[in-house]
Automatic annotation (TrEMBL):
Keyword Lipoprotein: no
Organism this protein belongs to: Bradyrhizobium barranii
Signal peptide: 1-19
SUPFAM superfamilies reported for this sequence: Periplasmic binding protein-like II (SSF53850)
Protein known as: Transporter substrate-binding domain-containing protein
DNA repair found in the keyword field: no
Alphabetic keyword roster: Signal
Length: 237
């Protein structure tokens, strides 16, 4: 489905014909915005003649692998990751952004930041840093194993609201054919810029990747690619 899309990448950059270096990145399984970020990075690394492969694992497992050096880094994470995982080096500028949003079955209210959901029972996906940080200190938070598992639990009234990236949530709710029952509330909780991370053994590669991201951002290429990928995923059958 949305994993297989991306004909536009071949138009962005073709590397030289000699053998390509390979970088393997942890990718949180079944999270659509991780797919989009990964394909954006594929275009970035193609300009450096580096091939990307992805290891699809749960969020916490991804961090265990990347911080230990079992894979070469993370596709995209929040900006404070290095403080908890010092072996992971942030690549700047940001590669992408997410908009954490509130989804619900019955409740209807205007969202006014994270405090506006404090009194509700909340579902989040374990290992998703933005959701964990935003709900920290709240009394009734359930950490689920995956996005689809969280959606099914919300549908079963295991909690009152769930929090996930707006784009990812829309895709996953539609995949489960629950869009008539589960809806996002407006506006999103916030917009968070997210960054690519590489293991410290790739310290020399960090500025090279950052330079390409900056160039693609300045030219508008990165935003155009993101828009195309999001549209493809949302329109996929």
């Amino acid at each position: 489905m949305w994993r297989i899309i991306v004909a536009c990448l071949s138009l962005l950059a073709a590397g030289p014909s000699h053998a390509q270096e390979l970088i393997r990145l942890a990718r949180i399984a079944d999270i659509p915005d991780q797919y989009v970020g990964g394909e954006m990075l594929r275009a970035v690394y193609a300009k450096l003649n580096i091939k990307l492969e992805f290891e699809d694992v749960p969020g916490k497992r991804a961090l265990a692998l990347s911080s230990a050096g079992a894979v070469d880094g993370e596709i995209q994470r929040i900006g404070t990751l290095s403080s908890d995982y010092p072996t992971l080096i942030q690549v700047t500028p940001a590669i992408n952004y997410i908009e954490p949003a509130v989804f619900t079955t019955k409740l209807r209210f205007d969202v006014a930041g994270w405090n506006s959901i404090r009194e509700y029972s909340i579902g989040i996906v374990r290992g998703v840093g933005s959701s964990e940080a935003g709900t920290r200190g709240m009394a009734r938070v359930t950490a689920t194993t995956s996005l689809e598992n969280m959606i099914r639990m919300l549908d079963a009234d295991r909690f009152e609201v769930m929090v996930t990236d707006l784009f990812s949530g829309r895709v996953a709710v539609r995949k489960l054919n629950l869009q008539a029952r589960i809806v996002p509330l407006s506006p999103p909780l916030e917009r968070i810029h997210i960054y690519h991370y590489l293991h410290e053994r790739h310290r020399d590669l960090v500025p090279k990747v950052g330079k390409v991201i900056a160039q693609m951002e300045a030219s508008g290429e990165l935003a155009t690619l993101r828009e195309a990928l999001v549209k493809q995923v949302l329109s996929a059958p």
